[in-house]
Every structure is written in structure tokens, then in C-alpha cells.
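Bug #77: duplicate submission created two jobs. Keeping one. Sequence:
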Amino acid sequence: MKTTVLLAILVAIALAVAWFIFSKPAYPLSEEDAKKFFLEDLQGRYPSADVREVTEIIPLTSTDGSPYFQLQARVTNGMSTPCPERIHVYYDYPPKNFVAQPPEYITKGCKVCLNVDVCVLAYPEEAIIASHTYPGAELVGDFVRQNAEAEASPQYFENFENQTGVWQVNWSTPSAGTAYEVLLSKNQNRVLEVRSTPVPN
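Kept job's structure:
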């Protein structure tokens, strides 16, 4: 009798452990929980990033009828440098087989529009890089090379001085007597104008 009871208890424990190990954890499927979980994961994977933000959350249903969220995040390193690196990270919550999708590089190695046929300057990191590397911005490129502490301030305008879709990138540094304003066309992917401004001492 005692052996049978002990055997039954051991079998019950083994079944409980197996269920705990192999069953899917129960995730609270709220958008806020998905966002929180994703941001915590990004903090762990990209601890030195300047920017980590969830940019899109899409509620979906899998083929077996279970709900999940598809999330996209922006992660930027070196935002205050002339060559910020931006990646887009994609994630499913609950994670499918706990495998995250590979990140997509938007800027890398001081280059923009990676692996695309038609380039659109959609993001501030792209505008910063284009403002000192594109044809027509040679003066700004020299300025950036000669002033290691130079900082860029990008701003996007739907309408700017009779132009549509314009990035304005201002370059300045406390030690230089000149600041630069670069105007770029978002959709035409080119420098429109470079303006220099004397900085009073």
C-alpha cells in the first residue's frame, strides 16, 4: 500500500514538473504588458543605446486562433555623433518559440538607405548623416571633421519655405565661429541648400 501511494505521488510530481517545463507560460495579453516586456528585453540586449522606444504595436491572431502582438522598436546608438546607428527591432509577444527576429539596420557605417531601391530620408539619424556626407554638403563635412565636438540638431517640416518634406539639420559647436544649416529633401534624397551663419564670440 505504502509503495503504491509513494509511486503515485512520484508520478504526479513528475507529471507536474513535465507540464511546468514543456507548457507555454501564461502571458497577460495586454498592449501595456507587451510594451513593458519588450522594453525590458531591449534594455537587456542594448544597454548602451541612446534611444530605445516602441514605435508600433499591432494586435494579431495566429493560425491556431491565439492572440499575440507584433511590436517594432527603434534603437539608436551614438545619437549625438555625426554617424548615429539606427536599427529596427521586431518582436512577437508572446514570443514564437522564444526566438526574436533579426534587427534591421537603417543606418550603419555612416551610410543611409541600406538595402533599399528607393531612398527616402525618413528618420533623423538619416538626415544627420546625409547633412554632412551627401554631395553639396562638403563644407559641413569639413566642419564636422575639424570639430570633433560638433553636434547636429535635426528637425522635420512638412512645409518649409515653399518646399514640402524638408529636413533642417543645424550643426554647431561652441569653439567654432560658424554654424551651418543644411536643408535636405526627404523624398528627393538630396541636399537642397547649405547656409552658414557667423556665431558671435
